[in-house]
Amino acid sequence: VQLVESGGGLVQPGGSLKLSCTVSGFTFDDSDMAWYRQAPGKALEWVSGIDSGGSVTNYADSMKGRFTISRDNAKNTLYLQLNSLTTEDTAMYFCAQPTGYWGQGTQVTVS
Fold first, then answer.
1. Is residue 4 helix, strand or coil?
2. Per residue of the chain (111 residues), what is the pLDDT tens digit?
3. Which of 33, 104, 107 is CA-nearest to residue 70?
């Protein structure tokens, strides 16, 4: 099983990034998926979740209206569009599958 995140980087406040998570080794289109993040010195935080078909999405309150989760089951890829970024969004972002599979993370730095 592999989950590989990409798309992180350094961005100015107010900017945008689109994160990707490409998976292999399990049936992606049968799996709900989620994004988490962990800022330096802080606990792991759930960001957003999406059902297997991509029709049901949920967000943490502080991300609603700024972040958009989506997926392309044909490409085995999960996405997270980050808009209106603030310095508080600086963190390592991880994709995860509910049975316990995690990626290695991609760093987002807003400065």
1. strand
2. 999 999 999 999 999 999 999 999 999 999 999 999 999 999 999 999 999 999 999 999 999 999 999 999 999 999 999 999 999 999 999 999 988 899 999 999 999
3. 33
- Which candidate, 107, 110, 78, 109, places its Cα nearest to that of 93? 107
- Tokens representing 26 are 């399990």
Specify the DSSP element, H or E, that contains 109.
strand 106-110
Tokens representing residue 36 in the block:
């988490």
Tokens of 23: 């998976």
Tokens, residue 12: 């100015």
Residue 57 has a CB neighbour count (10 Å cut-off) of 14
